[in-house]
Amino acid sequence: MKTLELVAYNVGSELLLEDYIKDKEHRYEKIRWTQPLIQKFDSGILFAYNFGTLVFINISKDAVIKKIKEFKKYIRNPLKKPLKEECLIEINPNVKTYRIEFGKIILPKEDQRAMKIITFAISQSVTLDYFETIVDKILDSLGELMFGFPAKFRLKTKKILKTLAESMEIRHSVISDLSILDKPAITWESPKLEELYDMLYTEYELGERFSKLEHKLQIILENCQTVFDVMSTRELVILEILIVLLFVIDLVIITLEYLI
After folding, report:
1. Under 8 Å between Cβ of 87 and 6
2. Which of 53, 108, 194, 208 has the most CB atoms within 10 Å of its CB?
3. Please, what sign has the CA dihedral across residues 167, 77, 180, 17?
4. How many other CB atoms are found less than 10 A from the CB of residue 24?
5. 66 is in which domain, residue-wise?
6. Is the peptide bond before 108 cis (omega within 30 degrees of 0)?
7. What pLDDT digit, counting tens, does each position of 56-94 carry?
8. In whole angstroms, what is the distance from residue 219 CA to residue 230 CA?
9. Are residues 248 and 151 in the same domain?
10. How many structural domains does the chain have?
11. Which of the listed residues 90, 111, 132 is the one where a domain comes to its end?
12. Could you tell me the CATH number of the domain that includes residue 74?
């Protein structure tokens, strides 16, 4: 029986893996968003994902720190303090099926396909942490922007538009880039791999967390829509007032001309 330590770090919004490969390995390789760049160490292995996550299995802390520094140049929107998630993987020849017990993932043997499933699911989890943090900050900032609305509306329109754009971008990233609604293609190769991913999806509550995230994004979108509805109504009222004023001015001019 063997136990492996897994540590996943979300270091930013994106890893420029193709640029990294070109500079470090002097070759070109097209890396899909759900496809990891794999690097083997003497005692462990690294899985790097385009959506900003580095997953280390059985690699020393010093080697982890060194590798993160090596990737620093290739991180888009780097985090000052990377988000972290850990778990243990037990290799136990006495079991016949994949299991998750007390937060420990148990495999019958070391299998790189199973490792891809595990690292992908945990990468999704720690990257969801990243998006959850951003969305909470957006909600807080939106509350501040809405304070005193509509009196100060014109001063805050650009900020609200930016908030709306950020929210739409996050939703697209979670669904498209993180593939939170789709199973990884490797699960098609084996029902057992699909079962392993389903267990991890449940263990890390990926579906529930996405639903909560989407609910928060919907609140943001609805608040922004309310602002723009008020804006439209307000502009119509101003337009009607201007028309009335023009009519009154026209009447005054005609009256003056008649009196004179």
Report:
1. yes
2. 53
3. positive
4. 12
5. 2-111
6. no
7. 999 999 999 999 999 999 999 899 999 999 999 999 888
8. 17
9. yes
10. 2
11. 111
12. 3.30.310
- Strand-pairing partners, residue 219, are none
Instruction: Tell me the two tokens of residue 179.
Output: 């593939």
| Among candidate residues 62, 86, 111, the one where a domain is terminated | 111
Q: Any idea how long the chain is?
A: 260
CA torsion 163-164-166-168 (nearest 10°) is 160
Please write the tens of the pLDDT for every residue from 159-176.
666 777 777 777 767 776
The answer to whether 127 touches 52, Cβ cutoff 8 Å, is: yes
The reply to whether 173 falls in a domain is yes
pTM confidence score: 0.80
Residue 49, in any domain of the structure: yes
At which residue do the structure tokens 């502009």 appear? 235
Q: Pairing relation of β-strands 37-40 and 45-49?
A: antiparallel
In a domain, 251, yes or no: yes
Residue type, 194: E
